[in-house]
Design goal:
294 residues, 9 helices
């Protein structure tokens, strides 16, 4: 009866800040992928509500109403009071560092919504779930989708990103949390060029070429707040990554490599040189149509 879900890491391969609304929210355009690595979530019926956290980053997870997992549970109860009233035990294995620009909390909340909808047999479509989840944060709609996509607006406008290939990745975090509001406040320019259109036929090489012309407009302000990010990018560059860039508002950075073996070797060398950093080799999940043969 229990439901298990992966809450994959979200990686912004490109993130352009293209404007700002009157209410202060920034307008973004971002190419986003999700990885084979993530937190893990299990929900099961229980006599009383329970929330249990394990994993290497369990210590950084709030256990109260600030936690997005519990807010996701309570959001469903508010909207489906009859079907969602039964107590549940939620177990979260926290493998991703918190406040690190790879959507850990939002992905956890999205996985919770999917798992509880299944457990409680709630009749709700994915688009309805995205709208419902918007109060939980701008990253929720994309994390509910959890496939390669382009996000626009404040993150709520989502479209699938063609036939994205699987990308061997190395993720590196220097062990310092970075405040997203502080990064946005440090932005020097809030109206930047939008994303170029993706190649008509996306393959590994054409995507890498396209990414070379793209940016993360939050990278420079994040480095001004936390200079360790530039050291991370240097370390990834030193391993001859095809692309090295910060994800989201930081401090996690990624490198794209030619093969899984190259990514694993690079991760091993960076980890040996910087034992205090979080370093993992993984891969992005391709578009659905590309799963065959990977």
């Amino acid at each position: 009866m229990s439901q298990h879900r992966l809450a994959p890491a979200k990686v912004n391969l490109a993130l352009h800040v293209v404007g700002r609304r009157a209410d202060g929210y920034h307008l973004l355009e971002s190419l986003v992928v999700f990885t084979e690595l993530g937190d893990r979530l299990r929900v099961a019926p229980s006599g009383i509500d329970a929330f249990v956290v394990s994993g290497p980053f369990a210590a950084g997870v709030p256990r109260d109403g600030d936690n997005l997992v519990l807010r996701a549970r309570d959001l469903l109860r508010k909207n489906f009071p009859e079907s969602a009233r039964h107590p549940v035990r939620i177990e979260l294995e926290k493998n991703l560092p918190p406040a690190s620009g790879i959507g850990g909390g939002s992905s956890d909340a999205a996985a919770t919504l999917h798992a509880l909808c299944e457990l409680w047999a709630l009749q709700v479509s994915q688009s309805e779930l995205m709208t419902l989840a918007e109060p939980l944060g701008a990253d929720l709609p994309m994390c509910i989708a959890a496939h390669p996509l382009i996000a626009r607006g404040t993150g709520e406008q989502i479209e699938p990103a063609g036939s994205m290939p699987r990308l061997p990745l190395v993720l590196v975090n220097p062990g310092v949390p970075v405040s997203t509001p502080a990064v946005f406040n440090a932005l020097a320019q809030r109206e930047n060029a939008p994303l170029d259109g993706l190649p008509a036929r996306i393959d590994f090489d054409s995507l890498v070429d396209w990414l070379a012309q793209a940016r993360n407009d939050l990278q420079a302000p994040a480095i001004s707040i936390e200079p360790a990010i530039s050291k991370v990018l240097e370390a990834i560059d030193h391993e001859s990554a095809l692309v090295a860039r910060m994800s989201g508002s930081g401090a996690t950075c990624f490198g794209i490599f030619e093969t899984a073996e190259a990514a694993q070797a690079a991760a091993r060398r960076i980890s040996e040189a910087r034992p205090g950093w979080w370093v993992v080799a993984t891969a992005s999940r391709p578009s659905e149509a590309d799963h065959v043969g990977h």
